[in-house]
Amino acid sequence: MPQPEPLKTPETFQFFTRLHLQELTGLKATNLKELVEHIKTVPGSVIYHHTHRYLQQHQFLSPEPPNDFAYWVTEAINEVKLGERLASINTHEFSTIRSLRDKIAEAVEDFLNKTKRPLKEAPEGQEFYFMKSQSFILPTPYMVHSLDEFVQALGKVTIHSLYFHMFEARLRLEKGANDFSLWFETALGEKDLAKKISRLDPYTYTGEGLRAKIIQLVKAKLGTK
Hints:
single chain, alpha+beta
């Protein structure tokens, strides 16, 4: 008996990928006051770089990446408690770079307001250098119309493509949700599946682990293994 055709929609989902170019901004900080002043005024691409750089470079190895601010505050300034507070900021809770920036700045300013002793200075050569990530978004040949096709394509695209649709589209492009969930809900009417993907905390997975989890959820919806 012939199998029924997969449910399709006129709205196609195309997978994109991205390339990053890292650039120095010319800005640096030697103490916490200078750090927070720059955090509050630099472009969003700078905040994005320093909160996601580790994830991009170690996407196959380590979940829950630390941000550069927490690392510098702990290692160069030796303010361990503030470093821990910055490291504990859950990036997944924020839907925009602006709100993430505000949370980081708030933590540093709160620490400065409560600290009576003189500011600590970073040793020479250990200043915090602000960098930014410039993204180049490129289309891939993978275009899908159904959940079946989506699973097949997701198994083939690069981790950079997965990263773009799950992290960058949601936070840096301020879509409010990852691209997959948006397409599942708006094009396919799969609201439950969209919610399950949205509720995932992608920062607690390796790149390949996140890919496998999404495929698992979609296959469960399809009733396949």
